[in-house]
Amino acid sequence: MALFSRRAAAAVVACAALAIALAGCSPAAVPPSACCASHASTSSAPGGSAPAFGAAQTVPPYYAAIWAARSPAWSRPQNVTIRDTDTAKILLTVKPPAPYETFSFVAGTGAAGRWVVGAQRWHPGLYIGNNNASQFNKLYLLTYHAASGRAALTPLPVAPIQVNQLIGNVTTPEMNAGTHLLAAVALSPDGRQLATVVTSRAGYQVRVIAVPGGTVRSWSAAAPTLPIGYKGAYIPTAYNAEFTLTWLTDQRTLAMGQYSYDYRESGIKTQVLYLNTTAAEGSLFGASRAVTPSFPPAPHFTGLSPAKPAPQWCNVPVATSDGTTILCGGGAATGANAAGFANVGIWVLSARTGQLTATWAPHSVCCATGDRPRIIWASPDGRTAIITGVTGVHAVSQLLIRDPAGALRQIPWPGFIKVPDWETLTEPDVAW
User: Which residues form the signal peptide (predicted)?
Assistant: First the structure.
């Protein structure tokens, strides 16, 4: 399962071995009060039993969402709600275990009814829309037993860590201090290995932690050397990147997707590294097979857009757990313009060659920063997915299931949050 850094208006991604957390805040409405769980189980409405990892290509029947404990949602602690996929109906509300007072993120694991969550102390945010990201988080495994309608939280053997990069809230003080930040997390299919990406001024490191023992193995990539005389307002390095993690079904290979908003300064280019976790510790690139997205050159055109825009680039790539496919939201050939018009879509790539094999929902967007396509969840073979940002109208307020035949079916977001003085709505943090 994988999780990745969330920028301002992102959402969580969860593959059937992957869960990507991007942006997300609690929705504006406050849920009805259901009993909650910490280390003990909690009752709720009964549901179906959870399928085994990789057993089905269908969307799991329920998911987890970060949800405001009370109003106003943009400035209050958060619970985790477990919800019905088709209706967003709350099946169970889970509160943070003592001494923590809020959850900061939720990430899927590839198995229905199992998530990684981060719990932390609560203090009012430093600025509007900041839900306390600077606090240290304790990681837990949240397990939902659908047949009994109860849930439990089990501590994971990871020292508390700041999760700013995972939730898209890295600020100048953390960068200046070179703070170690959690940027991605994934639990192996058998639940015995927890993988994380941790960034710092020195670069980024993939860590694999034994569960429950806590033994750590690690592989690192160094940050690039900054240009002589560099005086930028921000330290570009790995803090300026997003990551995804996906455990392959062999439980030895860990796929790490990476993307940077500024390759020239960060030195991090868009690609997927397939890490052999049985290899000797040390160099991340030395122990990995790198796959870089590859697109045919765009035919020459004039004006704002060609008749059939050719895919040209990926944002954060997501590997499927069967090891055959890479999915990514991305851009297509677009003429130069100052209005924010862009051709976009979701691109399907070969995990062996990185070459484009198919396109999903190509369309155009204009004048909005939150309309870019994103993958929220994908089945083990990548043919079924939950996606957003794939239509031209109200793109980010639509959550859709794409079936293997390409048909789209809309399902409800659990809610949205409107932060004062922000122009756009923010989606809740969700994970399957």
Answer: 1-28
